[in-house]
Write a structure and sequence with these properties.
Blueprint: H1 14-24, H2 32-44, E1 49-53, H3 56-67, E2 74-78, H4 83-90, E3 95-99, H5 110-116, E4 121-124, H6 136-146, E5 149-153, E6 161-162, E7 165-166, E8 173-177, E9 190-194, H7 199-209, H8 215-219, H9 239-250, H10 252-270, H11 273-276, E10 281-282, E11 289-290, E12 297-299, H12 303-315, H13 331-335, H14 344-352, E13 353-355, H15 364-379
Parallel strand pairs: 2-3, 2-4, 4-5, 5-8
Antiparallel strand pairs: 1-9, 6-7, 6-11, 8-9, 10-12, 12-13
Helix pairs in contact: 1-9, 2-9, 3-4, 10-15
The structure holds pyridoxal-5'-phosphate (PLP).
Length: about 375
């Protein structure tokens, strides 16, 4: 048996929607399917306004531009994230300030946000790791107290909740991804949620994504021609990609339930190894959260042990994976004066984390095989 790490899931309706999009001849941005998808997200996740983008990276860039981050401003974020979170800040001349994570959820630790906050801090970018929500109550309390903007990196957090609200809708803005590696896919794709009641911010967002023009106001009939009003770029996805995404979002509950089945199976069969000491941790979903089951991970006692398990799984045709190399100790991070040892929990997690295969079409038989191979390894003491 061969178990890949990830496999793109198609609902079966994609070709029909793509064909329809081709026939509509509106392939550029903001066409029929772009509107369908953004309306669906606004309705299902109760978001004030959703703007579809070409990626979460671009949604993050837009959010940082809209916040007005400039040279000398600091933005607090975890080091345990994808480089896009930090790139968005650097591209506007701001400085990413890396905070430590909580060892149970691997999400940013609010206590360390307070420690890293100073008079230069302008914003916080919490990252919802694996679709499990950050402690948004504490983060928003800090943001209110120090007047900071909150931009959620919910790239992995589509259709997941913290308390009664969806991820990406707690902060001023939220960023989502539909990259092939995520739960709902258009190959490359993303969205920006605008949650604040600020018409001028929305207008600016629409101008930024339309190459810095007020074309959107022109389409709405508010101006009689459109012209250059902002520093912008082209962040609109082709309608063809949104036609591909549409059936995936229509089936998002089914996709989530399939992933939950595998996730719960892993948890049930592997949590016992915490007691035997074979593992130090595994995916934990706090009571305040409903996950979208984006991933399932194990934490080992040492990097050596993690790498050995990874190799043994591979020998048995199972693709597992580690995850982020911390941003602070990477080549770029060291250029801002960070070094190894600065964020010990982040570094330990990065060295000892192993993600197990998890995808929508995975069967219990596949998951059973992964557990069986792990059982054999753990019983031998690895
Ligand atoms: C995947 C991911 C991104 C980037 O998403 P793209 O849509 O590929 O740009 C950013 N942040 C996090 C936390 C991610 O997991």
């Amino acid at each position: 048996m061969k178990v890949p790490f990830n496999k793109i899931y198609y609902t079966g309706e994609e070709l029909a929607y793509i064909k329809d999009a081709l026939e509509r001849k509106e392939l550029s941005g903001d066409g029929y399917y772009t509107q369908q998808v953004s309306k669906l997200m606004e309705r299902c996740f109760r978001i004030k306004r959703v703007l579809m983008t070409t990626s979460a990276s671009h949604a993050l860039e837009m959010a940082v531009m809209l916040t007005g981050i400039k040279e000398g401003d600091e933005v607090i974020m975890p080091s345990f994230t994808f480089p896009s979170t930090a790139n968005a800040v650097l591209r506007q001349g701001g400085r990413p300030v890396f905070a430590e994570i909580d060892k149970n959820t691997l999400n940013i630790d609010p206590a360390d946000i307070i420690k890293k906050n100073n008079h230069k801090t302008r914003a916080i970018i919490p990252v919802h790791y694996g679709g499990v929500g950050c402690d948004m109550d504490s983060i928003l309390e800090i943001a209110r107290k120090y007047k900071l903007t909150v931009i959620e990196d919910a790239a992995q957090g589509v259709n997941a909740r913290y308390k009664d609200r969806y991820l990406g809708t707690w902060g001023d803005m939220g960023c989502y991804s539909f990259h092939s590696s995520k739960n709902y896919v258009s190959g490359e794709g993303g969205a920006l949620a605008i949650n604040c009641n600020n018409e001028s911010l929305l207008e600016r967002a629409e101008a930024i994504m339309e190459k810095g023009t007020d074309r959107k106001r022109f389409i709405k009939g508010l101006v009689d021609r459109y012209s250059w009003v902002e520093i912008g770029s082209s962040f609109l996805p082709s309608d063809l990609l949104m036609a591909l995404l549409y059936p995936q979002l229509k089936k998002m509950e089914y996709i989530k339930s399939r992933r939950k089945t595998i996730h719960d199976y892993y948890f049930k069969h592997l949590q016992g190894y915490l007691k035997t000491g074979m593992i130090e941790g595994l995916t934990i979903i706090p009571e305040s959260c409903e996950s979208n089951y984006h991933l399932f991970y194990l934490l080992f006692n040492s990097e050596k042990m993690r790498n050995k398990v990874l190799r043994e799984l591979k020998k048995n045709d199972i693709s597992a994976a580690f995850h982020y190399t911390p941003l602070h100790s990477s080549k770029m991070g060291r250029q801002f004066g960070y070094q190894s040892g600065d964020l010990p929990i982040t570094e330990k997690v990065s060295q000892t984390l192993l993600r197990l295969p998890l995808y929508t079409e995975m069967s219990l038989e596949d998951a059973g095989y992964v557990v069986k191979v792990l059982d054999r390894l753990f019983k031998q003491g690895c």
